[in-house]
Write a structure and sequence with these properties.
Length: 387
């Protein structure tokens, strides 16, 4: 009988004082999900199972491995019992072996499998569920003849969990990838947030009419008429509905939100206009910057409170926190893997490692990396629980 990840880690509570509390559903069967992916290799000459190699990569990334060489090095240094649980035997896969596999793997299938599995681990959201759509370039994948790999992802607010991801040719192609990215997701009752680039009339109709969802769309210069109309609204007469203050990363920030029901907005299904004022103060220099952002939403005043609207607006920018973890803690931009689908596959594994750590309660991913680097057996418990 399988032993859940929660049970395994709970048993270690006495030995690991800084292990965070574990609340979500059991994180099991990820190894089976990875094993079931289509194998791009020929049957003849296969030395390692696909699931074993992907599990190895995930364990290594959980421990902070940023390159194929570092993944192979972690494999070489793993105790025999870890290699046995992975199904590697006594031999150790080399970096070139891992590189060839990841370059040829079906990256769409990998993203669908990982995103679907992660979505299944989450408990229902109390209140208004929200999903952020945003893109990120893998700067280290740029070559003299090829632009950097660019990925468009859908991230659940507050969860640091990517449940869908697609590769696009350039940032401008995010527009055409928006519908395919969300087409297979169940979005009824969910509010989808996105930046000004993705504020398109077709996207609004798709979400409301086809997916029975809602949106909060930032309006900037690509909709000049609508932006001008929003700026001219009598905001001085609109009461302040929400005010929040946060500090961190060397700055103090105050956000104010106003919302007004407006008829005749020149955007499909838009019923409310939003004004978000951000006041940022650099703690070190004392410099203050003020930014006003305008948005429209399909949510009526009776469908979302001011606090929920403000949380959805703030929640969209949490995707930047996920990108920050990938760039700094997991050193994504320093990774120079450039062949085939390998850059995207490694990005998917980074997303997976961040989500796994978040799901079991780590608030600081750098601490999670430090822990799993020295306890690869604990990382492996998240993927293939002990029997």
């Amino acid at each position: 009988m399988s032993v859940s990840t929660i049970e395994v880690l709970s048993c270690r509570r006495d030995r690991i004082a800084d292990l965070p509390a574990i609340e979500p559903e059991e994180l099991v069967h990820l190894a089976g999900v990875l094993e079931a992916l289509p194998d791009p290799r020929r049957r003849q000459g296969r030395r390692y199972r696909l699931g074993a190699l992907l599990a190895l990569c995930t364990v290594a990334v959980l421990g902070g491995a940023a390159t194929l060489v570092s993944i192979a090095r972690i494999s070489a240094g793993a105790p025999p019992e870890i290699r046995a649980r992975l199904g590697l035997g006594k031999s150790v896969p080399r970096a070139c072996t891992l590189g060839r596999l990841l370059a040829r793997i079906d990256a769409d299938a990998l993203d669908r499998a990982v995103g679907g599995w992660l979505a299944g681990q989450l408990e229902p959201v109390d209140g208004l569920p929200a999903l952020a759509v945003d893109g990120k370039s893998l700067r280290g994948s740029r070559t003299a003849t090829r632009t950097a790999v660019h990925l468009l992802a859908a991230v659940l607010h507050g969860e640091k969990t990517v449940i869908a991801q697609r590769q696009v040719e350039t940032k401008s192609n995010e527009i055409t990838a928006f519908r395919p990215l969300l087409a297979s997701l169940e979005l009824a009752g969910t509010v989808v947030t996105f930046d000004a680039l993705l504020t398109q009339t077709d996207h609004a109709r798709f979400l409301v009419e086809d997916k029975n969802a809602h949106y909060i769309a930032v309006v900037k210069g690509n909709h000049p008429t609508l932006q001008t109309a929003l700026k001219k609204l009598p905001w001085r007469d609109v009461p302040l509905l929400d005010k929040t203050r946060t500090d961190g990363h060397g700055r103090d920030e105050i956000r104010r939100l106003k919302a007004a029901t407006v008829t005749g907005l020149a955007f499909p299904h838009a019923v409310q206009a939003l004004q978000i004022v951000r006041r940022r103060r650099d703690v070190r220099t004392g410099k203050v910057t003020l930014e006003r952002v305008y948005a429209v939403t399909s949510l009526r005043a009776d469908q979302a409170t001011a606090a929920q609207l403000a949380a959805a607006v703030r929640g969209h920018w949490q995707i930047e926190a996920l990108h920050h973890i990938r760039d700094t803690t997991l050193r994504e931009d320093a990774c120079r893997v450039r062949t085939g689908n390998a850059p995207r596959a490694l990005a998917t594994l980074r997303n997976l490692s961040i989500a796994l750590a978040h799901l079991i309660g780590w608030a600081n991913h750098a601490q999670a990396v430090d822990h799993y680097r020295s306890h690869p057996d604990h990382a492996l418990d998240l993927i293939t629980p002990t029997r």
